[in-house]
Amino acid sequence: MPNESTTSRPTTSASASDTDRAKQLRAALADRLRADGTITSPAVEAAFRVVAREDLLPVEVPLETAYAADHTVETKHDQRGVPISSVSAARTQARMLEQAQLQPGMTVLEIGSGGLNAALIAEIIGPHGRVVSVDIDPEVTELAEALLRVTGYTDRVTVQQADAWHGVPGQGPFDATIVTASTPDIAPTWLNQLTPDGVLVLPLVMNGLTRTIGFRRTGDHLTSTTTEPASHLLPMRGAGQHIEQLLFLPDPNGNNITLRFDCAPPGDIGLLDGVLATARSQLWAGVTVPDPNLLADLQLWFAWHLPGYCQLSADTGTELAAEHGTWYPHAAVCGSAFTHLVVHTTSDGAGLELGARAYGTDSYLAAQAMIEQVQAWDHHGRHTTPTLSYWPTDSNHTQIPAGTPTLDKTHGVLTIHWPHN
After folding, report:
1. Which listed residue, 46, 75, 249, 280, has the most CB atoms within 10 A of its CB?
2. d(CA 331, CA 373)
3. Could you tell me which of 87, 100, 89 has the C-alpha nearest to residue 44?
4. What is the pLDDT of residues 300-337, one digit of tens each?
């Protein structure tokens, strides 16, 4: 497939019926996001009620899609048809804007252009604020600038083509920086261009798991104020690109289960040869959840506490793929085995019991390792909100309390703390 880029909507006036329908959908979207708690502040709500999403999206996007709460709009693809640029779903935009704690008069950096999100930011920070929107792709910045010009936002939004990993020359400092693509680390330049009490919001990859975190400066490091599940966000391109490691495990029929790692797979991966042809073990943790959405919290616990943690996907023809609704893509490699999370409905139908299924000669040990972490999460991490801190390389790491779980990053160290129940 050739490269595809968006085209702006015609500048001719829309029909009266389309305009009225857009207004109705805009109000309904704001009402929905306010009612379900995604939008919590009057400023973000007002922005969603004012900005005409249909004027800042590709011409072919239907109004119903433009105002769908959870629909990501892909705006450009590479030659293989893989999306490389998109406009985040309305719910994702609203969450990140709330995390940024924007105030009137702020100077804000948006990394990842498109036009729509920059317009929302401009409405929140008002006429005395300023937005700098940066993207590595000149086609994306050209279109974003054109859309913002047509919709009247260029007096408050500056669009610039650059690889933001290296900073934005001649701009800043910024009161808030919002990164709209997933990133494996925090670029030193983002901190250098952030004000002493500035906020950084970004989808951060942590051991293969991505969470959108709102950080605020605390002396020489950053401390999280909010942590949200991240969904349908494209990876960053350029110098900050995250390249995951893939391990393909064929089943006896030639279909694959794929394990996805943040870095190199642990141990001797040769021990996993033929693992799907071995007998499997399955254990249950005696831990139940009433709502599958709570598994997002468990996934965060796994990423920090379960050795060999990875993400799992299955080809259509595999036995696993046929078992709809009974497994989740949270997995781990343990010696000559791998394990993944499974669930089944409790006898009273009130919830889901959590378990582990494992394959390989060490299958029982692998399943037991996951079960132990499910139980540890149930006792120590469930119903709590962890605090994450990012310690740049040049910060004082002696301040990190002994025994704190850590993840090493290229430009710093990430820590996490779960408060006691």
Report:
1. 75
2. 12
3. 100
4. 999 999 999 999 999 999 989 998 889 999 999 999 99
Residue 328 near residue 334, CB atoms below 8 Å: no
Averaged pLDDT, 166-175: 93
Same domain, 111 and 145: yes
Of 11-15, 193-197, 200-204, the poorest mean pLDDT is in 11-15
CA distance 268 to 289: 35
Assess if residue 205 is contained within a domain: yes
Which of 346, 362, 381 is the C-terminal boundary of a domain? 381
How many other C-beta atoms lie within 10 A of the C-beta of residue 59?
10
Q: State the Cα–Cα distance between residues 385 and 371, nearest whole angstrom.
A: 21
Q: Is residue 298 domain-shared with residue 214, that is, in the same domain?
A: no
Q: Choose the final residue of a domain: 210, 240, 270.
A: 240
Query: Other CB atoms closer than 10 Å to residue 404's CB: what's the count?
Result: 11
CA distance 4 to 72: 16
Same domain? 127 vs 261:
no
Amino acid at 63: L
End-to-end distance of the chain based on CA atoms, in angstroms? 52
Which residues, at least 6 apart from 179, have a Cβ–Cβ distance to it below 8 Å?
111, 112, 164, 190, 200, 201, 202, 203, 236
349 plus 225 within the same structural domain: no
How many whole angstroms separate alpha carbon 373 and alpha carbon 133? 41
**Which of these, 232, 234, 221, 134, lies nearest to 178 by C-alpha position?**
134
For 95, the enclosing helix (H) or strand (E) is helix 90-100
Q: Are residues 46 and 175 in the same domain?
A: yes
Q: Quick check: is 403 in a domain?
A: no
pLDDT for 7 equals: 41
- Residues 6+ away with beta carbon under 8 Å from 274: none
Interacting residues of 226 by C-beta distance below 8 A, sequence separation 6+: 98, 99, 213, 214
Q: Which residues are catalytic?
A: 88
Rg (CA), the chain: 23
Enclosing H/E stretch for 328: strand 327-334
pLDDT at 31: 98
Tokens of 63: 């109004």
